Predict the 3D structure of the following.
Amino acid sequence: MSKLWGGRFTKKTDQLVEEYTASILFDKELAEEDIQGSIAHVMMLGKQGILPLDDVEKIKDGLHRVLQRIHRNDIEFSISDEDIHMNIEKTLIDDVGPVGGKLHTGRSRNDQVATDMHLWLRKRVVEFVDLLHKLQAALVEQAKANLDTILPGYTHLQRAQPILFAHHMMAYVSMFGRDIERLQDSYKRINMLPLGAGALAGTTFPIDRHYVASQLKFDRVYENSLDAVSDRDFILEFLSHASIIMMHLSRISEELIMWSSTEFHFVELDDAFCTGSSIMPQKKNPDVPELVRGKTGRVYGNLIGLLTVLKSLPLAYNKDMQEDKEGMFDTVRTLQGALQLFAPMIATMKVNKDRMRQAVNQDFSNATDIADFLVGKGLPFRQAHEVIGKTVLYCIQQGKYLLDLTLDEFKQFSKLFDDRIYSVLQPENVVNARNVYGGTATAQVSDAIGRAEAELEKT
Ligand code: ARG
């Protein structure tokens, strides 16, 4: 079978070369966008008088038929036609005859493939914003149900200060909020049209790029033809944002895994999101968060992979750039999988309020607050810190917690103590004392929930 570009060649392509250079096995993912772009292109060729209108109609109808056949899975793509662009063009020519060969007028695969990728990624970004909103909504629901759940907050994975579980959930709502902002901001750089750049220098035909842009609902047209066919920043940006989202997901995954352990037993993931062991009958493993944590690696890998492909690459198109696709598809699939599972997993997670509370009762995470109490009595914070450090050490030696000490015992460490400390030390009071914007006090966290709900309602 002859190649679309066969004219200059006297020999058949080596079979292994064909297999090595072909991208059809993965870029068939772009079929719909390829046809969408071709329809806009051929309509423009008609409007500009570059092609007669009846040729345009034949080509358009043919492209619609090709699309239907693709949807019906009725086309066998072939490696000898290399990629999705030439497979579709070949199928079109088989369908409509030689007039199909006019479609590629004033266009190159270089601006065509870039256009396809912009169209494809544009859709995905919209879907990801939606998935992230759903995850935020699930986290907000858990926060609302746990405005009275107190657990130890950690630094260095050591008990630090008690916090509301709701506050912890809302921390992730904020992170995913920034992820959404980043994706939305990148949209303006994805929503740009490369088509019309030709192979690299523009085209001799009197095309109308702005018309094509408006047909495809792109906000902007790439200004420079060399840049248009060479740019993959928009993919890099997406891969970076996807990496940051996975990093956030891997952190909450790690916490869910820890919290599900017998040692913590703070939460229980629903059976539907866990698996068992083939040998140990008692096991219920948190496979979903574990895999999300693990798959973060491949998402980072795809980012580093494409950064490395593009590094030092001279302008304009180079075949290296065909390597932009598999990583992007893989990242999209990986992120979709993680986000689709995460929202229902969070929504169905059981929160063990009593166990968290028990943990708070058996620690020194209220120590900062009696230091602050002494400061309130006029003691410089540094000295108060020292006094409480000694008090905690005494407790540890005695096998007691701060609330177990008598006032006399307290007074051995400072005369400034009085019986109000017992109230200061109560976990509820410790939490509610942090009544600053962004703090863990119930009033602040309810406000944060209210703000998040208002944002989610707008979507
Ligand atoms: N399959 C190619 C890619 O994905 C399409 C562009 C090919 N252009 C070329 N001049 N060989 O990058």
Summary: The longest strand covers residues 158-164. The CA atoms of residues 7 and 317 lie 21 Å apart.
